[in-house]
Design goal:
Elements (H helix, E strand, L loop, with lengths): L1 E6 L7 H11 L3 E5 L10 H5 L4 E5 L7 E5 L4 E5 L17 E6 L2 E7 L10 H22 L5 E6 L12 H6 L7 H12 L3 E2 L30 E5 L1 H4 L2 E6 L15 E5 L2
Parallel strand pairs: 1-2, 7-8
Antiparallel strand pairs: 1-12, 2-4, 3-4, 5-6, 6-7, 8-10, 9-10, 11-12
């Protein structure tokens, strides 16, 4: 079984690439972020004609998450328990959804970007992650054999090797590498989850995201910010993982690469 996560940065703009990648990768479950669709203009037929069931959560032209599966799609859940909203807006952003696919509780996650260390989005990001961690920890506390995959764009580079120039980030007081953000990420590991991709894709210089500006991709100036964190029972099934850097190449590419995990039956 193969599961993957991919921030596609506008699904409708990259429908052809997504379809081609699904065919090429033979992926069974794909967690998608930044669909930038509402439900009423989501390209449902793209997945249905390929034999995938799909669930989507989108409320405007921003954010948006989806899960496509050809091994079942049950108990779809939009947002997680106590997911915070931003500011005084009572409407939660379309950043998290779950479904049970082939016995795995798959979460497609698009973690908020803190924007800057002093921006009001930073405490929102940290609160969002804390609430998610509490929910995710309860899943495996209640059932130690639960198979859970927390998959998506975390907007955090948890180690210095996960950015091309850590001194540049620190000197510029950039987000993604600040101690509070890294602590929030590592709290999931303390809670029992494992980054199951890194052992198969060791760094430094191994990234999942390259900004479109300043020729970041050809200069190999990227960041590792897309992850699959697995519960203990699911981590025990992992037999391989890869970051499909080739998918970042060419016309119309997303600025993120797909991250793929292989599981034993």
């Amino acid at each position: 079984m193969k599961i993957a996560t991919w921030n596609v940065n506008s699904l409708r703009a990259r429908a052809d690439r997504v379809e081609a990648w699904l065919q090429r990768s033979d992926c069974d479950v794909l967690a998608i972020q930044e669909t930038k669709c509402k439900d009423d203009n989501f390209p449902w037929e793209l997945f249905e004609r390929m034999g995938y069931e799909v669930a989507h959560f989108g409320v405007n032209q921003w954010n948006g998450v989806a899960i496509a599966s050809r091994v079942g799609l049950e108990d779809v859940e939009r947002t997680f328990l106590d997911q915070p909203s931003f500011g005084k807006d009572p409407v939660q952003e379309a950043r998290a959804m779950a479904a049970t696919c082939g016995g795995i509780r798959v979460w497609s996650l698009y973690v908020p970007n803190g924007r800057s260390l002093d921006d009001e989005h930073m405490p929102y990001k940290l609160k969002w992650l804390e609430s998610l961690k509490t929910h995710a920890q309860a899943l495996i506390t209640d059932d130690p054999q639960a198979q859970v995959a927390l998959m998506g764009d975390w907007n955090i580079a948890p180690f210095d090797e996960d950015v091309w120039d850590i001194d540049l980030f620190i000197n510029n007081r950039s987000t993604h590498v600040s101690p509070p953000e890294r602590e929030a990420f590592h709290a999931f590991e303390t809670a029992g989850y494992t980054d199951v991709v890194r052992p198969y894709t060791p760094g430094p210089g191994v990234y999942t995201y390259w900004d479109y500006t300043q020729l970041r991709f050809p200069k190999k100036e990227g960041m590792r910010i897309d992850f699959v964190l697995a519960s203990p029972a699911l981590a025990a099934r992992v037999t391989g993982a890869a970051i499909d850097r080739e998918e970042r190449k060419g016309k119309g590419a997303s600025d993120h690469a797909p991250v793929l995990v292989e599981l034993a039956d």
